[in-house]
Amino acid sequence: MIYGYARVSTVGQDLTIQKKALKGAGAEKIIAEKASGKNTDRKGLKRLLGQLQSGDALIITKMDRIARNVKEGIELIDNLNEQGITLNVLNMGVFDNSPTSKLIRNILLSVGEWEREMILERQREGIQEAKARGLYKGMPKKYTNTHKGLQHALELMENRDSNNMTVNDIAEETGISRATIYREMRAKQK
User: Fold this and answer.
1) Does the structure show a pLDDT above 90 at 82?
2) DSSP state of 141
3) Catalytic residue check, 98
4) Of 6, 2, 35, 37, whose CA–CA distance to 21 is shortest?
5) Cβ neighbours of residue 145 under 8 Å, at least 6 residues apart?
């Protein structure tokens, strides 16, 4: 069977172009997902790998769709080759265990990992610049000091001697997580 695998990193991105290319290349079944490529621990990829059998073919549009991590990408591709599964990268060709395939695979995976690290570096630089200008405050708090559920949770925490409630009980009753309750209690004590 010929499988296709399509991946984009964010919810706002679209899989249509990849799916169309995979179908055009003969993919009979396509697994598509929206997940980061930083590692190979992805639901859709795991499901796909569980379905592949010796003699099957896997088609991807670009090497970085399957992995953006050199070590995991090499392991994944080596495992596919050892199982007798053909990997076809549409913009590069078929990858097997030949020395040339291994060289090109390693270069492409290295470029993918480098590209991801450059994106993260630019993001960190942008955040630092925005912080320096006072424009970046981090993630907004989910609960403000006026949130009724949070206030109720803090009151229950302060009266634990009389109400005999555990933190788990309070979290369950108010819908506020234990971590948030503890963090807010620490902030209140300062």
Assistant:
1) yes
2) P
3) no
4) 6
5) 151
How much helix, strand and coil, in percent to the nearest 5, is found in the chain?
A: 55, 15, 35
Give the DSSP H/E element, type plus range, for residue 174.
Answer: helix 167-174
Q: Check if the beta carbon of residue 136 is closer than 8 Å to that of residue 143.
A: no
Indicate which residue of 9, 101, 162, 177 is catalytic: 9
Inter-axis angle of helices 167-174 and 148-158, nearest 10: 160
For residue range 111-160, list pLDDT tens digits in order. 988 998 999 999 999 999 998 998 887 777 777 777 888 888 888 988 88
- Residue 76 contacts residue 46 (beta carbons within 8 Å): no
Read off the tokens for 104. 């090109």
CB 13 within 8 A of CB 38: no
